Amino acid sequence: MSSLRYALAALFAASVAMAAVMVALVVSSDHESAKGVTAVLGPFIGLSFCGTGVFAWMRRPHNRFGALMTAVGFAWFLGGLTEANDPWVYTLGVYVGPLYLVLVGHMLLAFPSGRLETPAAQWLVAIAYVTALAVQVPFFLLGGDISGDDNAPRNAWAIWDNPDGAQVFATVAQLVAAVLIVWLAVLLWQKRRDASAPQRRAMAPVLWTGFVLMVTLAVAVAEQLFGASSPIVAGPSLPALVAFAAVPWAFVIGLLRSRYSRAGAVGDLVERLNAQGAEGESLRDALSEALGDSSLALAFWSRGSERYVDQHGQPVDLPPATSRSRAVTEIEREAVPVAAIVHDAALLDEPGLVRAAGAAAALALENERLEAELKARVAELQVSRAKVIEVGMAERRALERNLHDGAQQRLVALSLQLGLAKTKLRADPDVAERILDGARVELASALEELRELARGIHPAILTDRGLGPALEALASRAPVPVEVDAVPEGRMPTAVEAVAYFVVAESLTNMAKYAHAEYASVRVLRENGYAVVEIEDNGIGGADPSAGSGLRGLADRLAALDGRLEVDSPPGVGTTVRARIPCA
């Protein structure tokens, strides 16, 4: 940034040197009738453009508007070469004289972004440069008259003596210029019409001044076409010159007005927030009016879900950073995200405005953030409760099927076997003994199935011995080696241990079914009031939490305890399931 400052300082110093050259040319000129006025106003106008352009360039290094305004000032100084007595220098000054008007048109169309954003603007500027630098060349080569009066030097570039032919090219150049000026005025009007309210407010001084300049130039060109003997050398009219000189000052006035309006907007906002509740005005409405952006929207940071939500607690997607029409300004309080203000991108021209307004409203934003987060938690709990009920009903149906198809059938068979054994007990004791042996095997199988069902509901080992032994038992039954790295020694709340157990159980089940893993590891840690459960495997990865009911059910179980589930499963790398459960 310091090198840019030095370069811009050198650029402004060069403009001062050119201003001094212009003064010297005016003072020594044999054909300038108003030397005093021209020696003062000429350098003043050029330095106004160069100084303002350098300031804008330094303020926004990546915006081309400052460079364009500076170029207008240098083009104006080059036009001042018409004060020279040397024919070659004088002719060069006449040739480059119209260039500053082309540059000011380019600058107005590019304001405030520094870019020509429409094909129409790009075509207009291209035609203008070609007209200024190429179409008038034959006028000079054919010996066109460029003398403003009898004392001015003659055309030093004349190769042929054909003044009538030269006049044709001069007239064509003036006709094209007239069309371009009208076209430019129309584009400026459309630019204002299509702009948003903040954009219109920011562009108003420069655009209105530019529009006045185009109107006065159109009148001047019309007069030159029908009255001037040499349209090429005839300069703009006095009204057009005044409007042109006012352009850089209009830019300065716009900046001052923006800064004043910034202070006023923030002051009004603070006053209105102090009178909170008047006529039921919302914070969004107060910020919208203070910033002059009716499209303004607020998003609040939910620390529980770590995402932005609206005032009703619903998730919000912020505009991308590449958006040209919408921008996001994030507001923090004590280095913690509070809210995001989604606003018109034009407000970025005053980057401190939105941030100052957000800082002034930070306390109110924090209050609304808490309310929005509460609504978000209520909405999540409602959804989670409904899902937990649904999952519970599904688990009951599955339990019913398992009991009916498994242990219940075995117990029925056992009852029949015992009845058969009773009938055979006296008549054929040996057969009765064999039947009772089979009944004992059937009873053992039924008991094992009931134990497996009990583990799925709530394993006894978890209640009796705690999470560590329960996880070791899970690991021992897994089809691949599972290492339990760490488990807290002390007991945790029953609900926390139960959810942690089922997170591990479901994760190991998914690993066995889909992951094709060779090993897995389980760890449970306590961090900052949370129980953190991590299950990691070296399988094929690619797990999608939204694709299956198992992980979704775990997420719902966790949400009931205000916990969160994270699944990191890049394809080909493995899967890491991480659960964070509040644990006081």
**Succession of helices and strands:** HHHHHHHHHHHEEEEHHHHHHEHEEHEE
Fraction of residues in H or I helices:
55-70%
Instruction: Round the Cα radius of gyration to an integer and report it.
Output: 41 Å
Query: Based on helices, strands and strand pairing, what is the structural class?
Result: alpha+beta
Helix tally?
19
How does the major sheet shape up? 5 strands, mixed
Distance N to C terminus: 51 Å
What form results from the Cα inertia axes?
Answer: rod-shaped
* Arithmetic mean pLDDT: 77
Low-confidence stretches: 228-234, 277-281
How many extended strands? 9
Amount of beta strand = 5-15%
Strand order of the largest sheet: 5-6-7-9-8
Provide a quick synopsis of the model.
The protein has 19 helices and nine strands. With about 575 residues, it is an alpha+beta fold. The strands form two sheets. A five-stranded mixed sheet has the order 5-6-7-9-8, covered by helices on one side.
Topology:
Elements: H1 2-28, H2 35-59, H3 65-79, H4 87-96, H5 99-110, H6 119-135, H7 137-141, H8 163-194, H9 197-227, H10 238-274, H11 283-291, E1 297-302, E2 307-309, E3 326-333, E4 336-344, H12 351-360, H13 362-405, H14 407-424, H15 429-457, H16 460-465, H17 467-477, E5 482-486, H18 494-515, E6 520-527, E7 530-537, H19 549-560, E8 564-568, E9 575-582
Parallel strand pairs: 5-6
Antiparallel strand pairs: 1-2, 1-4, 3-4, 6-7, 7-9, 8-9
